[in-house]
Model the fold of this input.
Amino acid sequence: MLNVTANRRNKKGLLELNIAPLIDMVFILLIFFLVTTSFVKETGIDVSRPTASTASPKPKATILIAVDNQNRVFMDHREIDIRAVRANTERALSENPEGAVVVVADTDSSTGTAIQVMDGCRLAGAANVSLAAGLPEGQ
Done:
């Protein structure tokens, strides 16, 4: 005769939790967040920004180009020639088409260099080009 209750007791002891699908989901979520995240590329140098009382934060600034006090241009932790601003900006915009460009010019840099950099960015197809400024002390 078949003992049904004994078979049920034995099967309850053999229950196990399979976490393989859970691990798969965690990896899928990790890949999703890595692919959809946009990273801000730093310029590679510290500049002394001019101050402006009307300065406002730019939340989607993903392309930063710096001009130091000796009118050298930096992008992605390397110095670039002023004539290469357009090509480098086109490359950066191809990676992130909706990215905004922010030119971070030093207080002691010439206005002409900053204008040339901004012009190169616009010629590269950047729709949103801004000049960085800091807020004055006390604001």
